[in-house]
Amino acid sequence: MNNAWPVHLGVSAPQQELRADPAFELVVVFTDVSETLVALGTAARLAHGLGARIRLVAPQIVPFPAPLEQPPVDPGFAERKFRVIAEQSPVDMMINICLCRDWEAGVLQSVKPGSIVLLGAAKGWWRSRKQRSLARMLRHRGQQVILSESD
Fold first, then answer.
1. Using alpha carbons only, what angle is made at residue 23 by residues 140 and 99, rounded to the nearest 5 degrees?
2. What DSSP string describes 36-69?
């Protein structure tokens, strides 16, 4: 198994690049390490036998006044962090690190219309408010959303 799919690091995922890929794709949004691993496990079960590719979308907030193209934290650090997560996952994946000002906007820009999106969330509505809010936004835009709850 090769978990070293290319890392796309950019201000936002180019929409033409996302639309050009004909592969069936499941999108997992990074929330935190444990929740994301649960979502990746769910994605692996769904992708098994379908020939689906899994893409991990990892929004990285760049605060003002730093330019989006020059985040204060070295992009190599984020890349290494997500490669470690990929190595813990049972499936091959592509990692899309999105530099953005707002977490939700970064996710929305990185997910193509009609995508199946998986979000890891802790059990209990009070612990997963951010993910449930994003799930509502994604559903409103026409994406299919699966919340994978962790213990």
1. 60
2. HHHHHHHHHHHHTTTT-EEEEEEEEE--TTS-TT
**Structural domains in the chain?**
7-12+22-150 (3.40.50.620)
Q: Which residue has 């090769």 as its token pair?
A: 2
Query: Residue 78: phi, psi to the nearest 5?
Result: -65, -40
Report field, pTM of the whole predicted structure over 0.85: no
The Cα 135–Cα 41 span in angstroms is: 19
110 Cβ contact partners less than 8 Å away, ≥ 6 residues apart? 12, 13, 18, 27, 57, 59, 96, 98
Query: What is the full per-residue pLDDT of the chain (151 aa) written as tens digits?
Result: 333 333 444 443 334 344 444 468 899 999 888 888 889 989 988 887 777 889 999 998 899 888 888 888 887 888 888 888 777 776 778 888 888 899 888 999 899 888 899 998 887 765 667 888 888 999 999 899 998 887 6
